[in-house]
Amino acid sequence: MKIVKLKLEDIDVGTHTPKHIDEEHRSKIESMKKKIKKGHTLPPFFVMADKNSKIKYRRLDGFKRYLAYKELGYEKIDCIVVDESTNIDLDDKAQKKLVLITGYKCNNNCRFCYDANKRSIPNRTTKALLKDLTIGIKYNCDYVDILGGEPTIRKDIFLLIKKAKEMGYERICITTNGRLLSYNPFLEKLIDAGLNSIIFSIHGHNAELHDFQTRVKGSFSQLLKGLNNTQEQAKIKDIQIGSNTTITKLNYEHLPQIGEFLVKNGIKNSEFIFVDPTGEAYNNFKDLVPKITELSPYIKKLLDIGISNKIPHWHIRYFPFCYLDGYENYISEKYSPFQKEVHFGPEFTNLDVDESRKIISRVKAPQCALCKFNNFCEGVWKEYEKQYGLKELRPIKNGN
Fold first, then answer.
1. CA distance linking residue 218 with residue 43, whole number of Å
2. Beta strand spans in the chain (E)
3. CA distance 116 to 285
4. What is the pLDDT at residue 197?
5. 95-359: same fold as 3-82?
6. Rounded distance between C-alpha atoms, residue 207 and residue 214, angstroms
7. CA 219, CA 272: separation in Å to the nearest integer?
8. Which DSSP string do the residues of 63-115 spell out, in sequence order?
């Protein structure tokens, strides 16, 4: 699609326009204006030619971007002109995400941790991480997820969040085991710096299961306290709360109970991740990685809990579609809120995580080519193939 410069006065701003500019819209508009002033190029607008109107074009997306350019006095903006037959995604909620891996040091010692073999790699310096944040802005990322290891044990975590906010990131998140958030003054300081999203790593519905996996007694108690503290803060401040649960042989039979625990604790955004067989899961594959045939019934029960409770985001990740026919809309590889993910780590840079994962880490069976989900499904981990083979994979054909 060709990008052209169009005059703002030739574009009908009324299409898809909110009835009023609320505080959230205003905050995002101001954030976009800061990016533009710094020389960053925002995504082009989709417009449609309108021969039946005095205005030449109808705007199809980007209301906040339009106002940002208009308020800065721009006369022309980058646009893509489409017609009614063009299939485009006009979801303004899609974001480009920077994942900032600060290092591999952690105050837990999870049995399945994929970073376990990287502990000797030095953490990234503050200077390097600030540079990565700057690069993320140049890639038009508006969401940053700061993780580790465990990001909250870094002394510069408040500075990183503060700088991310100053640079114009709209959503500033940490993925955490939640232990240090059990100290409310620490949590308040993170929020005051600009943190507005927290993803808790929750691997069990009780202390016995969670602590056994983290290998830290009391970690579940601290996690629960941190979650409760965050929920109290969310009553008065804009904070999104989510969770990640790694699925292993140790907890898969308890997935329904874990799901009920998350619902009971008011979490509306949850990802359930089929364990990545690297790190400790590679070292102890048969003890930690369940077979997909054994796991599938428990995943369906888990997904049913989210569906029945109308949880907005309740997805499984890295699990073959052929065992979740009818649940495909709850698999992250098909539906993601992000246009693209960029990852910066201590020893690597990955500018297209989804595509590289498919090539480097995932594998399909020959029979997968016959499956109706072949365009979405990534198959299984390559280490899974080495250990268990691919005979479990079964193509689901249209009409089955």
1. 46
2. 3-7, 11-12, 45-49, 57-59, 76-82, 95-101, 143-147, 171-176, 197-201, 240-247, 269-274, 313-317, 338-345, 348-350, 362-363, 380-381
3. 14
4. 96
5. no
6. 10
7. 20
8. HHHHHHHHHTT-SEEEEEEE-TT------TT-EEEEEEE--S--S---TT-TT
Please give the single-letter amino acid code of residue 85: S
Q: How confident is the model at residue 82 (pLDDT cuts 50, 70, 90)?
A: low
Query: Which of 51, 70, 50 minimizes the C-alpha distance to 7?
Result: 70
| Pick from 313, 13, 64: nearest CA to 168 | 64
Where do we find the tokens 């905050």? 27
Share of the chain above pLDDT 90, in %: 64
Locate the domains of the chain by residue range: 3-82, 95-359
CATH architecture of 3-82: Alpha-Beta Complex (3.90)
| The 3-state secondary structure of 376-388, one letter per residue | CCCCEEHHHHHHH
Residue 388 in tokens: 């268990």
For residues 63 and 18, give the distance between their C-alpha atoms in angstroms, rounded to a whole number.
8
Class of domain 95-359: alpha beta
Tokens 């005051």 -> residue: 192
